[in-house]
Amino acid sequence: MTLRVAASIGDRLLDRALATAVARAGAPGRIRFTERQLYYELCRVLRPSHAVPRRLPLTPAPPVRYERFEEALRRHGAVPGLLAPVSAPAPIPVPASADAPRDPSDPSGPSEPDLYDYGLPRLLVCQSRQVARMLLANDVHLEAACPVFAADDLPLDPRLVTGLGRVDGATVHVLHDASVDGIALAARVRDAVPGVRVSSMGLVPRHATALHLISPRGPAPGSGPPALPAALEPRERDWLAEGRYAEVESVAPARLLRTVLRLVRGPRTPGHSVWTGLRELRRAGFMTWPTNRPGDTRTQGDKPATRNPVQG
What we know:
By secondary structure, this protein is α/β, with parallel strands linked by helices. 36% of the residues lie in helices and 6% in strands. The protein has a four-stranded parallel beta sheet, sandwiched between helices.
């Protein structure tokens, strides 16, 4: 009887925390978010590690099992802004260029038959199809004039690759988890778009520790894991070797949207930057993720930050 009462109290506390997480996940405005993003928001409500000083590296374990979150979600009922899970690949919208009008009656694809004749300055590949769908649902592809694809859409339509080749400095951005497979995705994308600049936004372990992201633990990588960038620090390699990982969906939805829009739209790092020459680091996206203060980004070692022009 005592155990049953304790379980009931625990469920009520979890339900209250979930209601808070639902309100936070969609703020500000009407942000659309995935189920896993809501789960990680619940974890932040239960364990507010974001309040810990940024100078302390931290990747806490989840405070609640995903199964308990799913039970609470069923008790909660309908959640405004929550996206249904994606069970199969869906068409990815390709935004029309400024010179090619878009048909509003057909939001799922290009409206002009000659759209692929235009140059394409940027494109985004996400490791997770759920993340790609979340970005599309929040119109990132329209605001940034950037097609959004999932990694399992590779290889890309040859017409898209040709369009990238028509623009000097065209870039394929890669958004991936802080995991062995995620970090290896950039090399896979480079193979899929030869001759086109590929820029990794992250995540990498130092992003996860700086942002205090929730980090589950999986099985340690087996023998012969994918080659990791030489720029990874020993502590980051040790973190990955322990089976640790942090998903892109563990980043708060508003922060993720703000950061993706800023990085995709530019501006790019000036040629005279102090970081000139550290091209491998720049390609790995190590200096690009924001601090907990809105409007800031933080470089490695908490060096001076640059302002974020995109305000949420």
